[in-house]
Structure formats: C-alpha cells, structure tokens
UniProtKB/TrEMBL annotation:
InterPro entries, sorted: Ald_DH/histidinol_DH, Ald_DH_C, Ald_DH_CS_CYS, Ald_DH_N, Aldehyde_DH_dom, MeMal-semiAld_DH
Keyword Oxidoreductase among record annotations: yes
Key words of the record: NAD, Oxidoreductase
The organism's place on the tree of life at top rank: Eukaryota
A GO term, aspect molecular function: methylmalonate-semialdehyde dehydrogenase (acylating, NAD) activity
Family statement drawn from the similarity comment of this UniProt entry: Belongs to the aldehyde dehydrogenase family.
Main EC class the enzyme belongs to: oxidoreductase
EC number in record: 1.2.1.27
Gene source species: Penicillium cosmopolitanum
Domain Aldehyde dehydrogenase intervals: 36-500
Lineage, top ranks: Eukaryota, Fungi, Dikarya, Ascomycota, Pezizomycotina
GO CC terms: mitochondrion
GO biological process: L-valine catabolic process; thymine catabolic process
Record flagged with keyword NAD: yes
Protein name listed in UniProt: methylmalonate-semialdehyde dehydrogenase (CoA acylating)
C-alpha cells in the first residue's frame, strides 16, 4: 500500500448537529488494518438526509483496491485460523468494550448519514453490540462432538472456518447489520471483506478502527466500498467462500442466485411486509402505542416495521385513536432531542414513498392521515414525510403488494381470526407478524396458523436476540434460509465440519511400554 495514501483515522471526531461541515473528508477503504484513500475517479456523494448537505464522498473502490482487500484477507487467514480460541475471545471482549465506549460516536455517524433519531441510532449500535457480546461465548459454542464408535475407534468432529468471507450490507441499520456478520465470522476463524451500504458507511469505518484497536491482526477485517460493481467482484472472486447479504429483493435474489451458482455459501435476508392484527379483546393502549411506534418509528425504514394493520370486528373504530397518536409524533432532524422520527434516507426514497401513497389514493383507498409535504421548519430541504395511515386497502393494491419502507401504515380488515391469518399467509413475504390480544387461545391459534418466521404476541417488533437467529422466511429470504443470521445458525454458516475417525489399537501400548523401559 502506498504510504501516501494511508489516512491515520477514519473519522477523527464527531459532532451532533446537522450543520454542514466545510471540506468534509472522503471515506477511505480499510485494507490490511490501514485506512487507505481510494485512487478511484468515481465517487458517490453522501448527503445528510435532514438537509441534503454533503457529508462525505464514498469511493467506488477500484479493482486494485478490491483485490488488495481479498489478498489481505487471504494472507491473514492461516495465522488467524491457528490463533488460539482464548486469544480471539480476548480480542472480542475488547471489541465489545470499545463499541460500548464509542456508542455516541457510532450513533452520531448513523444519525448524520442515515437520518434516524439519535436515540434510535443508539439502539442500532446496541443490537449489534449484543451480537459481539454473544460471540464472546464462543468457547462453549464451538465444541464439536466425539463418539467412541467401537473398541479403539472414535469419531470426532471439528468446526473449521471457511476462509475469506464477505458481507454486503443495507443502509437502514449501519451498525447492527455489519455486526450480524463480523463478530461471528471472525471469532470462528474466518477473515472478512465487508461492503457497507454506499449510503451509510460511517459506522462500519468506526467499527474497523475499533477492531484494529481491539487487536485484530492485519487483514482479518477489510472494508471496501461501492455499488453493484463491488458486489459483482465479491460474487466472482474465487477466494471468497461465503456471502452474507441483507437488503432488497432485487439485489439479494440476484446475489443469491449468482453467488450460489459460483459455489459460494450465501445467506440473504430480504424485504418484508409485516402485519399486526388487533383483536377486540386487546389492551387498546398497549396495541395502539405499539403499532404507532412500530409503524412510524425510524420513519418506517426497518425490515421489521409493522407496515400493515388488520383490524378485526370493531377494532377499526380504534383507528381515530391511532391517528391521534401518530399526529403527536414529532418529525425532525435526528439530532433534535424531541424528534420521534427523522427523514427518509434519500430524495429518491421520499419520491417512491409519496408515489406509493398517491397510488393508494388512485386505486380507491382512503388517506386517513396524510404525511406528504410535512417538513420541520428548521429542515426545509430534508427528505421528510410524516406518519401516514391508509384505510380501505385491498390486497391487490400496489400500496399493499409493495414494500413501502416509509412511515406508512396500510389498514385492511377481516371478519375473524381465520380470515386474518389467511390474508397474512397469502402475502408472499414472511419476515414477521404480531397479534394483540388478551386471549391465550387466540394467541396460540395465531402462532400455529401463521407462516411468517418471527411472531410477536403483544410484542410489535419481535426481532430475536442473538442467542436465537433472525428467522424471516418465504420471500423475505433467498433460498431456504436454513442458515440464518446469527445465533446457532450463524455459527453453522461460518463454519464447516471436519469429521475425523481414528483408530489407536490399545494392544500397541506394549511397544510403547518397551520403548519407555529401554535402557538409556
Ligand atoms: P439494497 O438492496 O438497495 O442495498 C443493499 C446492498 O446491496 C448495498 O450494499 C448495495 O450497494 C447493494 N446493491 C444495491 N443494488 C444492487 C444491485 N442491483 N446489485 C447488486 N448489489 C446491489 O437495500 P437497501 O435499500 O440498502 O436496504 C433496504 C432493504 O433491505 C429493504 O428491502 C429492507 O426490507 C431490507 N432489509 C432486510 C432485512 C432483513 O433482515 N430481512 C434487514 C434490513 C433491511
């Protein structure tokens, strides 16, 4: 690496305002434990979603830089694989402590680049940190199995790393999603090339700096940047054995198919349409507060956002109370302390969301609460849209068939629980669903009848903690999803079994004994 291109730090400090910075630094690559300025001529402008002022430029890493990242990871692999488990564990403990110490700095980067509120951004970091902390338990997670299969013969299995692995991340959880991969991939002995979203790379760059501080040797963690070209490089490079992808169906289905065809192990978490059902016996306050938070929080840019509501019986009469709650939510720049939801990530996202609301109107649905055109006075140029509630939605309408990924709740109705379950199961996505009820029987029926992979019972966003796995299914994953992100499946994804059968004849002890007794 050319010494001139090495940058000492990713981001020296941080500030917690949306004030524009003059001459903001470009985002570097992270290669072989160094921040390296890109030699590219193609840069992607990254703008603060609250103001649309420039935050940084993100490189389309050059072919040479992409190759350097993989070479560095390949070089690091043998020694890292051979590093003692306890040493790797110590590094992971250190990383966990550093992330906790750097929580505000990481969250500030997320708010600035992604737009979510600072409190929400801290949650993003926390959920990633929990995966790091769980990875510290590797000493009891990784052991293989041993069976004495016959006299003097035993079979023993070992979990071995795959080699160089890659992670391709989306914009919406800039810390949590890179941390779904990095800790588990590395603690199991792999080296990693990570490509953050070109829209939100800042948190990954800080994490890289913390990895270096924690003691990861050169080349174990590398970060490259870009869009489809960088992704194609990852898919096609033969040294990369596995790809962890989280993002849209369009990108993920392509990566899954092309990556699998190249013989790679691929896990891919995709889009969603998550439903909530309110039964008439539900705790009204709990249900409405939960739904308002889960539909509109993070401006709806969560893969587990509750974006479709099914009212049952007379619970449609509760909708005006939901509108009241939604109206009270403050839309503002994410650093504003009173902000409940920030802007959408980009002007393109804003246009897509507004177009989908307009399509609902055109198809005959009712816009009960319209968030279009809502802009906080202080941020007239941001990508803001307020909470929006659409009623009289039918399952053929575009606002229902497409993932909106904005603070928009579409409302449908069902006559009974069976009908509600059928309606949800007819939807091709299967990330999550929630029911609000006081009846154990109804909850059990919901649990047994629903196809979606992550269910909440009086819990709006049932994302499993890292001792479990993220278990979306149907169109919310590519392939069969038998190797989900994190938890036991995550460990399986990043390791392969080696099974050794050995025979040591106990009669041979005689020879050994005579050697021991040999005169000196
Ligand atoms: P995206 O698919 O646009 O981008 C994700 C990654 O893929 C980025 O790194 C991007 O550079 C790359 N990419 C984009 N287009 C590509 C293409 N055509 N070919 C190859 N690579 C491409 O997704 P996004 O907008 O960043 O994230 C939002 C989506 O992610 C939503 O659909 C959301 O539901 C989904 N998501 C799913 C989960 C989950 O666990 N199921 C979690 C978070 C987000």
């Amino acid at each position: 690496l050319g010494a001139k291109s090495i940058v000492t730090d990713s981001t020296a400090g941080y500030h917690m305002t949306h004030e524009p910075v003059t001459n903001p630094p470009d985002t570097p690559n992270f290669l072989d434990n160094s921040f390296v300025r890109s030699a590219t001529s193609q840069w992607i402008d990254l703008k603060d979603p609250a103001t649309n002022q420039q935050v940084t430029r993100v490189p389309e890493s050059t072919d040479e830089e992409l190759r350097q990242a993989v070479d560095s990871a390949e070089r690091a692999f043998p020694a890292w694989k051979a590093t003692s488990l306890l040493h790797k564990q110590q590094i992971m403990f250190k990383l966990a402590a550093l992330i906790r110490e750097s929580m505000d700095r990481l969250a500030a980067s997320i708010t600035l680049e992604q737009g979510k509120t600072f409190a929400d951004a801290k949650g993003d970091v926390l959920r990633g940190l929990q995966v790091v902390e769980t990875a510290c338990g590797i000493t009891t997670q990784i052991p293989g199995e041993v069976v004495e299969v016959s006299k003097d013969m035993e079979t023993r299995s070992y979990r071995e790393p795959l080699g160089v692995v890659a992670a391709i991340c989306p914009f919406n959880f800039p810390a949590m999603i890179p941390l779904w991969s990095l800790p588990i991939a590395t603690i199991t002995g792999n080296t990693i090339v990570l490509k953050p979203s070109e829209r939100t790379p800042g948190a990954s760059m800080i994490i890289a700096e913390l990895c270096r501080k924690a003691g990861f040797p050169d080349g174990v963690v590398n970060i490259i940047h870009g869009g489809k070209r960088a992704v194609n490089f990852i898919i096609d490079n033969p040294a990369i054995k596995a790809i962890s992808f989280v993002g849209s169906n369009q990108a993920g289905e392509y990566i899954y198919e092309r990556g699998s065809a190249k013989g790679k192990r691929v896990q891919a978490n995709l889009g969603a349409k998550n439903h909530a059902v309110i039964l008439p016996d539900a705790d009204k306050n709990l249900a409405l507060n939960s739904i308002a938070g889960a539909a509109f929080g993070a401006a709806g840019q969560r893969c587990m956002a509750l974006s479709a509501l099914v009212t049952l019986g007379r619970t449609d009469e509760w909708l005006p109370a939901l509108v009241d709650r939604a109206k009270k939510l403050q839309i503002n720049g994410g650093f504003e302390p009173e902000a409940d939801l920030g802007p959408l990530v980009s002007p393109e996202s804003l246009k897509r969301v507004e177009d989908l609301i307009a399509s609902a109107e055109a198809e005959g649905a009712t816009i009960l609460l319209d968030g279009r055109g809502q802009r906080p006075a202080k941020y007239p140029n941001g990508n803001f849209v307020g909470p929006t509630i659409i009623t009289n939605v039918k399952s053929h309408m575009k606002c229902y068939t497409e993932e909106i990924f904005g603070p928009v709740l579409v409302c449908l109705s069902a006559d009974n629980l069976d009908q509600a379950i059928k309606l949800i199961n007819d939807n091709p996505y299967g990330n999550g669903a929630a029911v609000f009820t006081r009846s154990g029987g109804a909850a059990a029926k919901f649990r047994k009848g629903l196809e979606a992979g992550q269910l909440g019972i009086n819990v709006p966003i049932p994302v499993p903690l890292p001792m479990f796995s993220f278990t979306g299914n149907k169109k919310s994953i590519a392939g069969t999803g038998s190797l989900n992100f994190y938890g036991k499946d995550g460990l399986r994804f990043y390791t392969q079994w080696k099974t050794v059968t050995s025979l040591w004849k106990s009669e041979d002890i005689g020879t050994t004994q005579s050697l021991v007794n040999m005169p000196k």
